[in-house]
């Protein structure tokens, strides 16, 4: 997510990431955020008393998890996970932006996902318009199937290991990690690890918007780099109507004091429709609606 001391309420998304992120991804605004709301959290200082008085090499004291500011955030995330447990399948437009090496990779993708067995169908809007990908856990010898459009389609359907170099070329994570459930579980696991340490800020923004979707946002951040913190800032967006996660943003460390934190990952789910009744046919490369 983003910068170390930036408030969501004063987001200037177009100026902060202008030229980096398609405008459609930042058509949201944050309204009715008072100073009290944006500061409605607590920080565990580096020197806070701990049940275990040992310290991490490199800084960041171990703290009492029972009083950690991440506890309320994890409770809210747990409630969202309970809502997700009622979702067996869904369709969505998936927007992602990732820092791959020193370059950004952005995609807009129509997707179908089924939880049991875990199954994914992707049709790319941009770039690689028309590319189709299917992955079904336990099928196709564990491979994902890819069919390109245009002259690349002459190669036919390719079977790639999810973690192969070709499959990972424009991705930070394999297709086995895609989807709402994996998205939320990743954040929960991250916060559970960070629960062991101090130097954590948590802020809540109950009146955010993502496009036309009313959201509440949980923002966590750390004041300085520590080896136990992978990201400087994390933002989790939950739909107020469904309590489902609809966006996650992860930000790296500012390159210098006062500088903007670089975006490392952003995953957004729009036009989300849940429990639509997807079947094996939706994840079959022989489906006549597909071009495998």
Structural class: alpha+beta
The spatial strand order of the largest sheet comes to 6-5-4-3-2-1-11-10-9-8-7
Order of helices and strands: HHHEEEEEEHEEEEE
Shape: globular
- Mind summarizing the main beta sheet? 11 strands, antiparallel
Overall average residue pLDDT? 83
Query: How many strand segments?
Result: 11
Low-confidence stretches: 1-60
Number of helices: 4
Work out the helicity level: 10-25%
Radius of gyration: 20 Å
Number of domains: 2
Beta content comes to: 25-35%
Distance between the termini: 37 Å
What features would you describe in this structure?
The protein is α+β, with helices and mostly antiparallel strands. The protein contains 4 helices and 11 strands, in the order αααββββββαβββββ. Helix 3 runs antiparallel to helix 4 (180-194). The two termini are 37 Å apart. Mean pLDDT is 83; it is low at 1-60.
Summary keywords:
292 residues; alpha+beta; 2 domains; 4 helices; 11 strands; 30% strand
Task: Outline the secondary-structure elements.
Blueprint: H1 13-16, H2 35-38, H3 70-84, E1 89-100, E2 103-114, E3 119-126, E4 132-136, E5 144-147, E6 158-160, H4 180-194, E7 201-210, E8 213-221, E9 233-239, E10 245-251, E11 263-274
Antiparallel strand pairs: 1-2, 1-11, 2-3, 3-4, 4-5, 5-6, 7-8, 8-9, 9-10, 10-11
Helix pairs in contact: 3-4
Give a brief outline of the structure.
This protein has 292 residues and is an alpha+beta fold.
């Amino acid at each position: 997510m983003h910068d170390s001391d930036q408030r969501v309420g004063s987001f200037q998304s177009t100026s902060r990431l202008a030229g980096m992120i398609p405008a459609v991804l930042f058509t949201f605004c944050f309204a009715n955020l008072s100073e009290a709301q944006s500061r409605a959290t607590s920080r565990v200082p580096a020197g806070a008393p701990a049940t275990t008085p040992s310290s991490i090499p490199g800084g960041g004291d171990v703290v009492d998890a029972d009083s950690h500011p991440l506890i309320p955030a994890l409770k809210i995330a747990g409630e969202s996970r309970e809502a997700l447990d009622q979702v067996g399948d869904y369709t969505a437009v998936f927007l992602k932006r990732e820092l791959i090496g020193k370059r950004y990779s952005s995609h807009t993708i129509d997707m179908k996902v089924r939880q049991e067995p875990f199954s994914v169908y992707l049709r790319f809007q941009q770039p690689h318009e028309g590319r189709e990908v299917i992955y079904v856990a336990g099928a196709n010898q564990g491979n994902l199937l890819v069919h390109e459009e245009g002259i690349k389609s002459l190669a036919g359907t390719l079977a790639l290991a999810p973690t192969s170099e070709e499959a990972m070329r424009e991705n930070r994570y394999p297709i086995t990690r895609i989807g709402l459930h994996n998205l939320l579980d990743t954040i929960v696991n991250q916060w559970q690890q960070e629960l062991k340490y101090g130097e954590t800020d948590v802020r809540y923004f109950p009146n955010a918007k993502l496009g036309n979707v009313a959201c509440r946002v949980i923002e966590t951040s750390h004041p300085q780099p520590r080896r136990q913190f992978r990201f400087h800032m994390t933002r989790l967006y939950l739909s107020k109507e469904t309590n489902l996660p609809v966006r996650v943003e992860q930000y790296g460390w500012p390159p210098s004091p006062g500088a903007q934190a670089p975006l490392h990952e952003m995953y957004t789910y729009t036009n989300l429709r849940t429990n639509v009744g997807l079947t094996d046919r939706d994840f079959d490369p022989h489906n006549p609606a597909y071009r495998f």
